[in-house]
Design goal:
about 140 residues; alpha+beta; four-stranded antiparallel sheet; 4 strands
């Protein structure tokens, strides 16, 4: 569990795509773009599960499917906004079935949009992050 506590100490932040699947069927239902200061992007949902009465892990199998290290929180937030806009409208509390921190970032799962989001992240990395020589 120690890996979850490891944070960047150089100002870096990580952008991630977290996939939510039905626990019984394994069907992919939702995607959540987000940011974290933890080196392990799964830490965001790990702490949500520990600290909140209701968490994503109570309802879904979760898996981080893509990450990118950014040189600052501001840059990570910029990419997160791009991804949220790309995935479209947020779900209502009724559609998701519960409310927990981060729920407003959850979007419907769409494989074509996931593929495009990977391209957006890769292009963002090539055009911006790589030029700054970011290291984990």
């Amino acid at each position: 569990m120690k890996k979850y506590y490891s944070k960047y100490n150089n100002g870096n932040w990580k952008v991630y795509l977290q996939r939510f699947a039905n626990k019984q069927t394994g069907q992919f239902l939702f995607i959540k773009p987000g940011i974290t200061e933890f080196k392990d992007a799964n830490a965001r949902l790990y702490f949500n599960d520990l600290l909140e009465e209701i968490s994503f892990k109570d309802y879904f199998e979760t898996k981080c499917i893509k990450t990118l290290i950014c040189p600052s929180k501001e840059i990570a937030e910029n990419l997160e906004k791009i991804l949220l806009k790309h995935f479209g409208n947020q779900l209502s509390e009724k559609e998701l079935g519960f409310k927990t921190p981060g729920w407003t970032e959850v979007r419907r799962y769409n494989q074509n949009k996931i593929n495009e989001a990977f391209e957006i992240i890769n292009k963002f990395e090539q055009n911006y992050v790589t030029k700054l020589n970011i290291r984990s």
